[in-house]
């Protein structure tokens, strides 16, 4: 059965990762240390995507979380030969505002009420004990791509593809994200996209 893609910015762009899931990402300490020594950040294994992302993130330090968010988004987009996203300080400040609201409860909650999204928004929660990094969030969102059928412009039954389709949405040009370690030790991350993707009846690319 064909299912249309999520209605305009429907509140499907969320993903919960159980606390039991182990993380293969490096801890922030070693990652910052590598950067200070003048090496490429540990996450930036692809020099082309790293360089393109750094150019589109003016003022981002080499070890900045913002650049890590952008790098992983552009890894996904450039693999599809799509234009890379630029970092948006406006989206970032919006995302930071929302992340700060979540510090106390770490709730996997959108900043917009259902049906009233003014920006694209992907959110992530990781339980206490995991050193959840921007790459964990973006890679998990992007992993939904295996369930997306371009021919049908639909997601596999019972699956979620909205995070992926927002990442690769062709008309989206910028992103800004934030990460907060919550009071209970969990991690909440949120990314906002402009122009927003997941427009009903349109294909992402
Ligand atoms: C870097 O990433 C781009 C986009 O995903 C890809 O096309 C390219 O092959 C990668 N380069 C290397 C050396 O892995």
UniProtKB/TrEMBL annotation:
Gene3D superfamilies: CAP. Keywords: Pathogenesis-related protein, Plant defense, Signal. It comes from Panicum hallii var. hallii. Probably involved in the defense reaction of plants against pathogens. Pfam families: CAP. One of its GO terms (cellular component) is extracellular region. Residues 64-201 form the SCP domain. Residues 1-20 form the signal peptide. It comes from the Eukaryota. This is SCP domain-containing protein. The lineage of its organism: Eukaryota, Viridiplantae, Streptophyta, Embryophyta, Tracheophyta.
